[in-house]
Structures are given as C-alpha cells and as structure tokens.
Amino acid sequence: MTKIFIIGLPRTGTTSISVALLEQGFKVAHTAFTKQAFELADAISDSPCFSDYQQLDLLFPESKFVYLKRDLCKWLPSIKRLLYKMGPHLMPKTGHFNPVLKRSFEQIFDLNNELLLSDAHLSHCYLKHEQQVESYFQGRDDLLSIDISHVGSLTALLKFLDHECDSAQQFPHLNKGTQVANWKEYKHANKINSLSAGRDHRKFFDYHY
C-alpha cells in the first residue's frame, strides 16, 4: 500500500502541508501513533515520520516522501519555542505525551543534551537530519524537497504526487508564531485520528524494539 510521508522536522510547515493535502482530497494524519492510523491515511506527517522514514520505506514500498526545508534563521526560534513548551511532556518517565512521539523527538533532538535549546545544537540536529535524508534517497526519484514558503511549492508537490493542480494555489500558513495546535482546531472529514484503533487495537509497529 503506497503512502505519502512528510519527513520534514517540526516547525518546517508540517501542519500547513497536511491541511493542503486534506483540501486536495487526501486522508491525512498529522502524527500517527498506531498501525491503524498509518493504514487509514493516504498521507502522514510529523512524528514519527521524520525519525522513522527508513523503516516506513520498507513497510510501505513505492511510497513517496516529501522533505520540508526551512531557512535556519526562521526555524531556530520556532523550534526553540516548541521544545521549551513541549519539553516537560517529552521526558521518558514523567512526560505524558505518547511514547512514539517521545521516542521520535529524542532520536532527533537528544532531549537530555544540556545545550538542547542552543543554536549550535539545534542547527546540528537540523543539518544532520537533512544530510541523512539526502544520503538515504540519493539516486532515487521518490523524494521531493520543498520550502513551502516559496511560490510554486504547492504546484511542485501536487505534480510530484501526480495530482491535478491549479498553479495559482499556495500553501496555507498555519501555526504562526507561538501557535502549535492549529491541527486540532481544523475541522475536516478527511482527518485521521493519530490514535485510530484497528484489529491490533492501538498497537504501533514493532520495528523499533
């Protein structure tokens, strides 16, 4: 079963691209923490896709991957605000966030690093992730890299997905500034619940054990 995986890091436009894909008729999960959520969705963004894209590539052959780029000078203050707000809830033993989300953030950001919120550490995390993505997909044609702030990026995405498009359309700009929960507030019939239950209840894939 082919899927669309959005593998850009948080604060690169994962909510905006998720909403854009909803409006194009795709079933979308912004974060997915159960096998069933992955099965139900056409497109999945954010956690754990940005950390688990290699495993998902094996689980869902012939899928397409979209890497979201963002200027570091804009990404850094945004990701700092997010990590500062989410930090206490991401801790392994005391945080109340979903274990899959906590693992995903830990894998990318090394949450116990004493320099977690420094420009140097976060820049390293961003560039390391970018380099790993580029290396993994080198020579393949199933990865698209875009900056959603650029004119024409939505058209490029829809062409990549072989989906009919209007060249005048642009990405919506959501989760501006300190906002982090626009996805929850956005109402659409094509939204897939991150915790969708199926025949395996709310079990996640076991590839990370």
UniProtKB/TrEMBL annotation:
It holds the Pfam family Sulfotransfer_4. Gene3D superfamilies: P-loop containing nucleotide triphosphate hydrolases. It comes from Psychromonas marina. This is Sulfotransferase family protein.
